[in-house]
Specification:
By secondary structure, the chain is α+β, with helices and mostly antiparallel strands. The protein has one helix spanning about 10-30, and strands spanning about 70-75, 75-80, 90. The protein is elongated, with a radius of gyration of 27 Å. The model is unreliable at about 110-123 (pLDDT under 50).
């Protein structure tokens, strides 16, 4: 391979790739294709993991506590911020089902509805 055949340097190829990414993002932003939602009602508060604890077995976690605490909200476990009383979210599983605060029947508003039927009036 002679020097006349090498037309592009590695630096120019990297610069072209970075420039292409930047231009693509700018064009998508200018055309409104990138959605920036102002509705923060359904934004996840955070990601959590459960540590399986067997009786009598030690488990490892950070000695520092988080700046969050748990609260019971309408029968479901909620995570709330220590610093902001309005910052609260209901804990849900991977299928978006609420985690109850205690064992027992699900709260009334979570049970399946009758499809809009009114209960029979037995007078």
């Amino acid at each position: 391979m002679s020097q006349n055949e090498a037309r592009f340097t590695v630096r120019s190829l990297i610069a072209t790739a970075i420039g292409t990414i930047i231009v693509t993002v700018l064009v998508l932003e200018a055309s409104g294709r990138i959605d920036h939602s102002d509705n923060k009602d359904h934004v996840p508060v955070g990601e959590f993991e459960a540590i399986h604890v067997k009786p009598g077995e030690d488990f490892r976690m950070s000695p520092k506590s988080s700046e969050l605490h748990a609260a019971c909200e309408q029968g479901y476990l909620a995570i709330a911020a220590d610093t902001d009383p309005d910052f609260r979210g209901i804990l849900v599983d991977y299928k978006n089902r609420g985690v109850r605060c205690s064992r027992g029947p699900a709260p009334v508003h979570e049970q399946p509805s009758r499809g809009g039927q009114e209960p029979a009036n037995n007078e």
